[in-house]
Write a structure and sequence with these properties.
single chain; about 280 residues; TIM Barrel; five-stranded parallel beta sheet; four-stranded mixed beta sheet; 11 helices; disordered N terminus
Length: about 280
Protein backbone atom coordinates (compact mmCIF):
# COMPACT_ATOMS: atom_id res chain seq x y z
CA UNK A 1 0.00 0.00 0.00
CA UNK A 2 3.03 2.31 0.11
CA UNK A 3 4.21 4.45 2.98
CA UNK A 4 1.40 7.01 3.03
CA UNK A 5 -0.94 6.56 5.96
CA UNK A 6 -4.34 5.41 4.80
CA UNK A 7 -6.41 6.90 7.60
CA UNK A 8 -4.94 10.40 7.79
CA UNK A 9 -1.80 11.78 6.23
CA UNK A 10 0.29 14.62 7.58
CA UNK A 11 -0.82 16.90 4.73
CA UNK A 12 -4.51 16.16 4.21
CA UNK A 13 -7.21 13.75 5.29
CA UNK A 14 -7.26 10.47 3.41
CA UNK A 15 -10.45 8.43 3.29
CA UNK A 16 -10.17 4.65 3.15
CA UNK A 17 -13.05 2.26 2.63
CA UNK A 18 -12.90 -1.50 3.21
CA UNK A 19 -15.58 -3.61 1.57
CA UNK A 20 -16.21 -6.59 3.84
CA UNK A 21 -18.47 -9.65 3.80
CA UNK A 22 -19.43 -11.54 6.95
CA UNK A 23 -20.48 -15.20 7.31
CA UNK A 24 -20.29 -18.12 4.94
CA UNK A 25 -22.20 -21.36 4.59
CA UNK A 26 -24.25 -22.86 7.37
CA UNK A 27 -22.03 -21.94 10.33
CA UNK A 28 -24.21 -19.20 11.82
CA UNK A 29 -27.39 -21.22 11.25
CA UNK A 30 -25.86 -24.15 13.13
CA UNK A 31 -24.82 -21.93 16.01
CA UNK A 32 -28.29 -20.41 16.26
CA UNK A 33 -30.05 -23.78 16.03
CA UNK A 34 -31.74 -22.89 12.76
CA UNK A 35 -30.74 -26.16 11.06
CA UNK A 36 -31.84 -29.67 12.05
CA UNK A 37 -29.16 -31.89 13.56
CA UNK A 38 -29.16 -34.19 10.52
CA UNK A 39 -28.97 -31.40 7.91
CA UNK A 40 -26.38 -32.07 5.18
CA UNK A 41 -23.30 -29.87 5.39
CA UNK A 42 -21.14 -28.48 2.62
CA UNK A 43 -23.98 -27.60 0.24
CA UNK A 44 -25.02 -24.16 1.44
CA UNK A 45 -26.19 -21.80 -1.28
CA UNK A 46 -24.01 -18.91 -0.12
CA UNK A 47 -20.94 -21.08 -0.78
CA UNK A 48 -22.11 -22.87 -3.92
CA UNK A 49 -23.82 -19.96 -5.72
CA UNK A 50 -23.80 -16.57 -4.00
CA UNK A 51 -20.12 -16.04 -3.24
CA UNK A 52 -18.87 -17.46 -6.57
CA UNK A 53 -21.16 -15.02 -8.41
CA UNK A 54 -20.04 -12.22 -6.10
CA UNK A 55 -16.39 -12.95 -6.90
CA UNK A 56 -17.16 -12.41 -10.57
CA UNK A 57 -18.80 -9.06 -9.83
CA UNK A 58 -15.79 -7.97 -7.79
CA UNK A 59 -13.37 -9.13 -10.50
CA UNK A 60 -15.20 -7.16 -13.17
CA UNK A 61 -14.57 -4.01 -11.15
CA UNK A 62 -11.11 -4.78 -9.79
CA UNK A 63 -12.25 -4.54 -6.15
CA UNK A 64 -10.33 -6.38 -3.44
CA UNK A 65 -12.51 -7.22 -0.42
CA UNK A 66 -12.19 -8.89 2.97
CA UNK A 67 -14.27 -11.97 3.76
CA UNK A 68 -14.75 -12.67 7.46
CA UNK A 69 -15.68 -16.35 7.55
CA UNK A 70 -16.21 -18.91 10.27
CA UNK A 71 -13.40 -21.40 10.83
CA UNK A 72 -15.47 -24.49 10.10
CA UNK A 73 -15.64 -23.31 6.49
CA UNK A 74 -11.98 -24.26 6.12
CA UNK A 75 -13.17 -27.86 6.43
CA UNK A 76 -16.41 -27.52 4.48
CA UNK A 77 -15.37 -25.20 1.63
CA UNK A 78 -11.56 -25.21 1.35
CA UNK A 79 -11.53 -24.78 -2.43
CA UNK A 80 -13.78 -21.73 -2.28
CA UNK A 81 -11.66 -20.10 0.43
CA UNK A 82 -8.51 -20.71 -1.59
CA UNK A 83 -10.24 -19.21 -4.64
CA UNK A 84 -11.20 -16.12 -2.65
CA UNK A 85 -7.57 -15.62 -1.65
CA UNK A 86 -6.21 -16.49 -5.10
CA UNK A 87 -8.39 -13.74 -6.57
CA UNK A 88 -6.65 -11.17 -4.38
CA UNK A 89 -9.16 -10.93 -1.54
CA UNK A 90 -8.48 -11.44 2.15
CA UNK A 91 -9.87 -14.33 4.17
CA UNK A 92 -10.24 -13.34 7.84
CA UNK A 93 -11.74 -14.97 10.93
CA UNK A 94 -15.31 -14.76 12.26
CA UNK A 95 -15.08 -17.30 15.12
CA UNK A 96 -15.27 -21.05 14.59
CA UNK A 97 -19.04 -21.39 14.26
CA UNK A 98 -20.19 -17.78 14.69
CA UNK A 99 -20.11 -18.01 18.48
CA UNK A 100 -21.14 -14.80 20.26
CA UNK A 101 -17.58 -13.69 20.92
CA UNK A 102 -18.05 -11.61 24.07
CA UNK A 103 -19.88 -14.51 25.75
CA UNK A 104 -16.76 -16.70 25.54
CA UNK A 105 -14.24 -16.64 28.37
CA UNK A 106 -10.70 -15.55 27.57
CA UNK A 107 -9.63 -19.21 27.58
CA UNK A 108 -12.49 -20.16 25.26
CA UNK A 109 -11.58 -17.34 22.90
CA UNK A 110 -7.96 -18.51 22.83
CA UNK A 111 -9.07 -22.08 22.11
CA UNK A 112 -11.46 -20.91 19.40
CA UNK A 113 -8.71 -18.87 17.74
CA UNK A 114 -6.21 -21.72 17.91
CA UNK A 115 -8.68 -24.09 16.29
CA UNK A 116 -9.48 -21.63 13.51
CA UNK A 117 -5.92 -20.52 12.78
CA UNK A 118 -4.84 -24.17 12.54
CA UNK A 119 -7.74 -25.10 10.24
CA UNK A 120 -6.97 -22.25 7.85
CA UNK A 121 -3.25 -23.04 7.94
CA UNK A 122 -4.01 -26.61 6.82
CA UNK A 123 -5.48 -25.23 3.58
CA UNK A 124 -2.66 -22.73 3.10
CA UNK A 125 -4.34 -19.57 4.39
CA UNK A 126 -2.80 -17.30 7.04
CA UNK A 127 -5.33 -15.39 9.14
CA UNK A 128 -4.42 -11.81 10.06
CA UNK A 129 -7.62 -10.48 11.62
CA UNK A 130 -10.87 -11.19 13.46
CA UNK A 131 -14.31 -9.63 13.37
CA UNK A 132 -16.03 -10.80 16.54
CA UNK A 133 -19.60 -12.05 15.98
CA UNK A 134 -21.86 -9.71 17.90
CA UNK A 135 -19.37 -6.88 17.55
CA UNK A 136 -17.79 -6.97 21.03
CA UNK A 137 -14.39 -8.29 22.09
CA UNK A 138 -15.27 -9.54 25.56
CA UNK A 139 -13.01 -10.97 28.28
CA UNK A 140 -9.96 -11.74 26.15
CA UNK A 141 -9.68 -8.24 24.70
CA UNK A 142 -6.93 -7.86 22.12
CA UNK A 143 -4.52 -9.96 24.18
CA UNK A 144 -5.84 -13.29 22.92
CA UNK A 145 -5.58 -12.02 19.35
CA UNK A 146 -1.98 -10.96 19.79
CA UNK A 147 -1.09 -14.29 21.39
CA UNK A 148 -2.71 -16.10 18.45
CA UNK A 149 -0.58 -14.13 15.99
CA UNK A 150 -3.36 -11.90 14.62
CA UNK A 151 -2.51 -8.33 13.65
CA UNK A 152 -5.91 -6.66 13.76
CA UNK A 153 -9.49 -6.79 14.99
CA UNK A 154 -12.67 -5.26 13.56
CA UNK A 155 -15.12 -4.78 16.45
CA UNK A 156 -18.10 -2.44 16.61
CA UNK A 157 -16.95 1.11 17.23
CA UNK A 158 -15.45 4.14 15.53
CA UNK A 159 -11.97 5.42 14.77
CA UNK A 160 -9.04 3.29 13.67
CA UNK A 161 -6.30 2.84 16.25
CA UNK A 162 -3.76 0.59 17.91
CA UNK A 163 -4.03 -1.22 21.25
CA UNK A 164 -1.21 -3.32 22.67
CA UNK A 165 0.28 -3.92 19.24
CA UNK A 166 -3.02 -4.90 17.58
CA UNK A 167 -4.63 -2.63 14.99
CA UNK A 168 -8.30 -1.79 15.53
CA UNK A 169 -10.44 -1.31 12.42
CA UNK A 170 -13.96 -0.89 13.75
CA UNK A 171 -17.21 -1.08 11.85
CA UNK A 172 -20.27 1.01 12.63
CA UNK A 173 -23.69 -0.61 12.80
CA UNK A 174 -25.19 1.92 10.41
CA UNK A 175 -22.84 0.61 7.72
CA UNK A 176 -24.07 -2.98 8.07
CA UNK A 177 -26.86 -4.39 5.89
CA UNK A 178 -28.50 -6.41 8.67
CA UNK A 179 -29.00 -3.23 10.68
CA UNK A 180 -31.71 -2.34 8.18
CA UNK A 181 -33.96 -5.10 9.55
CA UNK A 182 -32.73 -6.43 12.92
CA UNK A 183 -34.97 -5.26 15.80
CA UNK A 184 -32.10 -4.59 18.30
CA UNK A 185 -30.45 -2.15 15.88
CA UNK A 186 -33.23 0.43 15.65
CA UNK A 187 -30.75 3.11 16.75
CA UNK A 188 -28.66 2.43 13.65
CA UNK A 189 -31.74 2.86 11.46
CA UNK A 190 -32.41 6.19 13.18
CA UNK A 191 -28.94 7.27 12.06
CA UNK A 192 -29.63 6.14 8.51
CA UNK A 193 -33.11 7.48 7.95
CA UNK A 194 -34.30 9.31 11.07
CA UNK A 195 -36.76 6.50 11.80
CA UNK A 196 -36.51 3.15 13.63
CA UNK A 197 -38.56 1.53 10.87
CA UNK A 198 -36.88 -0.98 8.55
CA UNK A 199 -34.72 0.58 5.85
CA UNK A 200 -35.25 -0.44 2.22
CA UNK A 201 -32.26 -1.74 0.22
CA UNK A 202 -32.08 1.22 -2.16
CA UNK A 203 -32.20 3.63 0.76
CA UNK A 204 -29.36 1.73 2.47
CA UNK A 205 -27.16 1.98 -0.63
CA UNK A 206 -27.99 5.68 -1.00
CA UNK A 207 -26.99 6.18 2.64
CA UNK A 208 -23.68 4.36 2.08
CA UNK A 209 -22.99 6.54 -0.95
CA UNK A 210 -23.56 9.62 1.21
CA UNK A 211 -21.22 8.19 3.85
CA UNK A 212 -18.48 7.52 1.30
CA UNK A 213 -18.86 11.08 0.01
CA UNK A 214 -18.38 12.33 3.56
CA UNK A 215 -15.38 10.04 3.98
CA UNK A 216 -13.77 11.44 0.85
CA UNK A 217 -14.23 14.96 2.18
CA UNK A 218 -13.15 14.44 5.80
CA UNK A 219 -10.84 11.42 5.74
CA UNK A 220 -11.04 8.45 8.06
CA UNK A 221 -11.80 4.75 7.82
CA UNK A 222 -15.11 3.16 6.89
CA UNK A 223 -15.90 -0.55 6.81
CA UNK A 224 -18.94 -1.51 4.76
CA UNK A 225 -20.38 -4.78 6.08
CA UNK A 226 -22.49 -6.98 3.82
CA UNK A 227 -23.63 -10.58 4.26
CA UNK A 228 -23.79 -13.10 1.40
CA UNK A 229 -27.09 -14.44 2.75
CA UNK A 230 -28.56 -10.91 2.47
CA UNK A 231 -27.50 -10.18 -1.10
CA UNK A 232 -30.89 -11.37 -2.38
CA UNK A 233 -32.47 -8.81 -0.05
CA UNK A 234 -30.11 -6.12 -1.31
CA UNK A 235 -30.83 -6.96 -4.95
CA UNK A 236 -28.51 -7.09 -7.96
CA UNK A 237 -29.18 -3.52 -9.07
CA UNK A 238 -28.43 -2.07 -5.65
CA UNK A 239 -25.33 -4.24 -5.23
CA UNK A 240 -24.03 -3.14 -8.62
CA UNK A 241 -24.63 0.52 -7.76
CA UNK A 242 -22.65 0.16 -4.54
CA UNK A 243 -19.81 -1.73 -6.20
CA UNK A 244 -19.66 0.83 -9.00
CA UNK A 245 -19.34 3.65 -6.44
CA UNK A 246 -16.49 1.83 -4.71
CA UNK A 247 -14.75 0.84 -7.94
CA UNK A 248 -14.95 4.39 -9.28
CA UNK A 249 -13.77 5.99 -6.04
CA UNK A 250 -10.94 8.20 -7.30
CA UNK A 251 -11.53 10.32 -4.19
CA UNK A 252 -10.99 7.37 -1.82
CA UNK A 253 -8.56 4.57 -1.19
CA UNK A 254 -10.13 1.10 -1.30
CA UNK A 255 -8.22 -1.56 0.61
CA UNK A 256 -8.47 -4.93 2.27
CA UNK A 257 -8.57 -4.81 6.05
CA UNK A 258 -5.15 -6.47 6.34
CA UNK A 259 -3.59 -3.71 4.23
CA UNK A 260 -5.20 -0.99 6.33
CA UNK A 261 -4.07 -2.77 9.50
CA UNK A 262 -0.48 -3.01 8.31
CA UNK A 263 -0.51 0.71 7.56
CA UNK A 264 -1.98 1.52 10.97
CA UNK A 265 0.70 -0.56 12.69
CA UNK A 266 3.42 1.07 10.59
CA UNK A 267 2.18 4.61 11.32
CA UNK A 268 0.71 4.54 14.85
CA UNK A 269 1.38 8.26 15.24
CA UNK A 270 -1.32 8.92 12.66
CA UNK A 271 -3.95 7.21 14.81
CA UNK A 272 -3.49 8.88 18.18
CA UNK A 273 -7.22 9.62 18.49
CA UNK A 274 -7.77 5.89 18.85
CA UNK A 275 -10.91 3.77 18.85
CA UNK A 276 -14.17 4.22 20.72
CA UNK A 277 -15.88 0.84 21.20
CA UNK A 278 -19.63 0.44 20.71
CA UNK A 279 -21.32 -1.71 23.35
CA UNK A 280 -24.35 -2.28 21.10
CA UNK A 281 -24.81 -5.81 19.78
CA UNK A 282 -26.97 -7.31 17.07
CA UNK A 283 -28.53 -9.73 19.60
Amino acid sequence: MGRKALYKSANRPVGTVALTFDNLGEAAELEMGALPADAPLGEHRTATDVVPALLERLAERGIAATFFVEGMNAELYPDLLREIEDRGHEVAYHAWRHEQWDELSAAEQAENLAQGVAAFARIGIEIAGLRPPGGRLGPGGVGVLREAGLRYCSPAGAGAGVEDGVALLPFQWRHLDASCVLPPLAAAREQMSGSPDPVEPAAFVAFLETETDRLAENGGFLAIVLHPFMLDWLGAENLDALLDRIAGADDLQVARCVDVADDVLAHPQQYVSGTVFDATSWT
